[in-house]
Amino acid sequence: MAPAPLSAERAWAATTASGSGSTSLINTSSSPPGDDWMTRMLEHAGVAPSTARAVTDIVLRPLEVVLVVVVALLVAHFGAKAIRRGLRRPAGRAVDRIDSPRAGARAATVISLLANLFRAFVAVVAFFIILGIIGIDLTPLLASATVIGATIGFGAQTLVRDYLSGFLLTIEDQFGIGDTISTSSITGVVEELSLRVTRLRAFDGTVWFVPNGDIREVSNASRGWARAVVDITVSPGAPDDLDRMERLLADAAAEVAHRPRFAAGTTEPPQVLGVVAADGTSCTLRVAVRTTATDHLPLERALRQALLSTLSAEGFWPPSPPAVPGPAPAPA
Questions:
Q1: 259 and 284 both lie in a single domain
Q2: pLDDT band at 71, cuts 50/70/90?
Q3: 130 with 60, same domain?
Q4: SS3 helix, strand, coil % of the chain, rounded to 5?
Q5: Backbone angles phi, psi at 237, to 5 degrees
């Protein structure tokens, strides 16, 4: 009976133990399962399998790891430098278009964040390449990461949305700490802004914690310029009373706008827009003054007080109550 053929592993072990390939029944130049291309290349060059594996594990594999680390460092350094250089000019043009003292610092922060994200990506890729060089099977690790990522993605959609919205709010600089904003039915001053939640302090002192994912529309009253608008309801008694009231309102508004408290922020003369509403007994006059966002509410209060005082001194305010018709005369 012919002897059973040896398996590849047993034949390779017998050849290695004898130290000579002349008596082997198989091709001794073939490497055992699991050896990489470097080991096979050394064996084809005439190196013994055990020596080839030792050279690969002790010399070539560490050199390959060092090479991957060096290449990753170079790619991370020059890639981040290219990102900074490529985004500096567009960011500079965007800063020139934005009327905000924080625009320059925010642009630098965003550029630095993108450069750091690129470095982190290169580090992760290099880490997995090194694991593969060492000989660690990445299939179970990647499968586990995929399952965990899918679980987190389905179970924490709201949390992911909050963090993503916070990241976009930070990049776009829609508002910052100290700004007065309104979102949904909440108006307040931003006291803290993180990637997940925004903390607002309302006028009455109430603290609101708003998840960033719930901020769909937001108005910012602390950017650039604003317009102080005051409406005054009067009851003119004569045809020329309206013209006289408008002159009085214009003089009072100009006096308030030239006060030291508001003169620096008032870039345009006050405007008396005239009648904006009317009914059978009264009409509403509107006065508007352009100012800075920080002086918006104080200027409105000062305007309202000055306008009412002026009209009251001239007898035009408070508006006269509507006349109550008397009883109809009895028929003769």
A1: yes
A2: very high
A3: yes
A4: 55, 15, 30
A5: -100, -20
pLDDT in tens, 211-229: 999 998 999 888 888 899 9
Total domains in the fold of the chain: 3
Token pair for residue 232? 């005054």
The one-character DSSP state at 190 is E
Residue 148 has pLDDT above 70, yes or no: yes
Whether 282 and 240 map to the same domain: the answer is yes
**Average pLDDT over the chain, rounded to whole?**
79
Calpha distance 276→286 (Å, rounded): 7
Residues 104 and 195 in one domain: no
User: What is the Cα–Cα distance from 192 to 205, expressed in whole angstroms?
Assistant: 15
Task: Return the H-helix or E-strand segment holding 309.
Answer: helix 296-313
Q: What is the pTM of this model?
A: 0.54
Average pLDDT over residues 250-273: 91
Residue 56: pLDDT band with limits 50, 70, 90: low
* Together in a domain, 248 and 284: yes
Question: Based on the domain organization, do 106 and 73 belong to the same domain?
Answer: yes
- Residues 17-32 have pLDDT tens digits of 444 444 333 344 444 4
- Which range marks the domain in which residue 192 is found? 175-220
Decide which of 205, 220, 235 is a domain's last residue. 220
Q: pLDDT value at position 101?
A: 61
SS3 288: strand
**Same domain for 229 and 216?**
no
Chain-centre distance for alpha carbon 41: 52
264 within a domain of the structure (yes/no) = yes
CB 284 within 8 A of CB 230: no
DSSP string, 54-119: HHIIIIIHHHHHHHHHHHHHHHHHHHHHHHHHHHHHHHHHHHHHS--TTHHHHHHHHHHHHHHHHH
Is 33 in contact with 49 (CB distance < 8 Å)? no
